[in-house]
What does this fold into?
Amino acid sequence: MATGTRNKLVLRLVYSLIIAFFFGFLISEVSFQILTRNTEREVEIYEIKIPAGTSERVEKGFPIPTIPESMIFFEGDKIIVRNDDGVSHQLGPIWVPAGSTGTLTLEKPQTYSLACTFQPSKLMGLEVRPRLTNDIRFQGILAIGLPSGILIWLFSIVIFPLDSKKIEVNSNYEE
It folds into this structure.
């Protein structure tokens, strides 16, 4: 392959990647903005208050209206369980004696189904979502830009082929 042809192909590849990464950036950022509204926030601390008389209500199968059966958090958030009931309670790995508090730090993104003594179902669902980081954004741009750039480059070669040296045909032949 001639040096001039190779240079043209490399230049075309660079232009294709620039175009693809620009559109990858646009697509990635627009989708992140739409899908992650209200997710870019600082670590929050949530307090769950177990009111007095909770154990009697749970034994009868009645829910506690102030405590939902499932909640959505983001990694790093903390749950403080304040037990004002006369009986000790449990939320997953934390044991909260009567009249005290316990803290649960949500470190890993996943869906949990925790043992919970202050719910009639004896379970509490927690969804822990990952925080949006610059690494995740970069991976989105790279996942769109790199394959798209290669495809644009290949299509440009097929649609707009490079000028190749014309082969001269000897027209001096005798009949």
